[in-house]
Amino acid sequence: MYQQAQRGPLKGLNPRVTLVTFVVVVVSLIFGAFFTEQLGHGLALVRSVLDPFLEWYYVLLVAFLLLFMIWLGTGRYKNVRLGSDFEQPEFTFFSWVAMLFAAGTGVGILFWSVAQPILQFQENPFIADGMSPDAARVAMRLTYFHWGLNGWAIFSFVALVLAYFSYRWKMPLTIRSGLKPLFGDRTDGLLGDAVDVLAVFGTVFGIATTLGLGVQQMNAGLDAVFGLPSSLTLQLIVTAVIMSVATFSVVSGVKRGVRLLSEANFWLSIAVVVFMLLFGPTQYLIAITIESTGDYIQNLMGMTFHTNATRDDGWQAEWTVFFWGWWLAWSPFVGMFIARVSRGRTFREFVMGVLLVPTLITIVWIGLFGGTALYHELFGTGGIVAAVEADVATALFATIDAMGLGLLGQGVSAVLVLLIATYLITSANAGTLVINTILAGGDPEPPTAHRILWGGLLGLLTAVLLMAGGLETLQAAVIMAALPFSVVIMLMIAGLLKALHRERYAARTGERAEAPREPWADLDDAGSQPVPVSNDEAHKAH
């Protein structure tokens, strides 16, 4: 395998990947700290240049990934197992779902579950009459779209590729492994290093962006509960505390720290959802969730391929490009984390679980929180639109306030602040673990000192992005980080197809994979041997 340092501070790490990513992050920190305004303007300028291209490029890529994942989960390879044929899943179904949901969308959905429906309620390109009942329905549909199947298709694809090559072919749990069928030994050198650098780059800025959004929202919650006004100083303090706890958690490993935190905030989320259902406009919430879900399913393909080609209103760049960029930037991180906890599941179990279960949870969550906000704007006292226009981060707590629950509402806001904190911690520690796993060449238990170092760097980068201009800068950063990794994803598609075809051929002919007629004959260097695609295939082979 590729070179790793054997001594000194880089022991156990790939020296080239580690040094390059470290230098890039440190330079970004220095530039952002001393040239904050220039960083914000520069990111905005680059985004304005790339947006016209990304408006169709990201759409096409994400549409293909959705259809491709459905095919993998239902087609000829559905019985391929992420491990040996009879290997059982490492984690229970509940723990698995809790971890992938908490790491995948926990923080983001807390921020946008009210803010996005309210913003789309005011204006969107699919309806002329804003602030109307029809606008509310369309706003829910669009929010489901940006948080539903398409986004999870990105996460699930990267996770499946990593898990397949790691657990079935005994290769390192790192991005470069997915390109082995295409490039052979070259993935062990500079080409593989470049791929891993892009993965770490996207992961670092993707996590920093989400942490920044979460910290802003947590600040709004502290204002609602304790009267602490929104300020950059408080946000920096919150960032430091969150990253300190997250780093401590990630040092304890996946089976203890990450799993327990994920399960804790999953149960806390359920409690909050039950509260919203009982104390909110229950009948309306059930009705709008059902109606919006049907609307989402009915319009899924049209929205998936929508590029806003006949309009020049900036909606596509502001919303779809940002969200697809966010999902793509997070995909190395969340994909590797999901792969880390998905060993032993078949393609069918994996695809159905990762695509459907988080999407259903998301639909319920947005239906209750976003539906409550829309109800109060349509039939209640309102005020949420004004709060969102003043500060997007206040949307969630403005909704709780509009419910008029007094001290009970204050208590719920306090619980939501705690929930935001736990989701931030979960995302941060999972991201730190993934970054170090890539740098350590796929080692699922990277050195503790390096986990601590990268936890600190993530906190510093989040602080710099917050100082550089808040939401717009965070959005621009994540879109830029996603673009280079999107090219890697296209190569991973080709690599996976080639490997699956080779394995199916070997199962049918009884041929061993140690001597394939492919340019990746060294795939079996680690002593692995492909197992049949399914028991049926094995029977046919004999």
Automatic annotation (TrEMBL):
GO CC annotation terms, alphabetical: plasma membrane
UniProt superkingdom: Bacteria
Transmembrane segment boundaries: 17-36, 56-73, 93-115, 149-169, 190-213, 233-254, 266-286, 321-339, 351-375, 414-440, 452-471, 477-497
Annotated InterPro entries: BCCT_transptr
Chain intervals with Basic and acidic residues compositional bias: 510-520
Subcellular location: Cell membrane
Tagged with keyword Transmembrane: yes
Sorted UniProt keywords: Cell membrane, Membrane, Transmembrane, Transmembrane helix, Transport
GO molecular-function terms, A-Z: transmembrane transporter activity
Segments of this protein annotated with the region Disordered: 510-542
Coiled coil, from the record: none
UniProt membrane topology term: Multi-pass membrane protein
Family: Belongs to the BCCT transporter (TC 2.A.15) family.
The protein's name in its UniProt record: Glycine betaine transporter BetL
Lineage summary: Bacteria, Pseudomonadati, Pseudomonadota, Gammaproteobacteria, Oceanospirillales
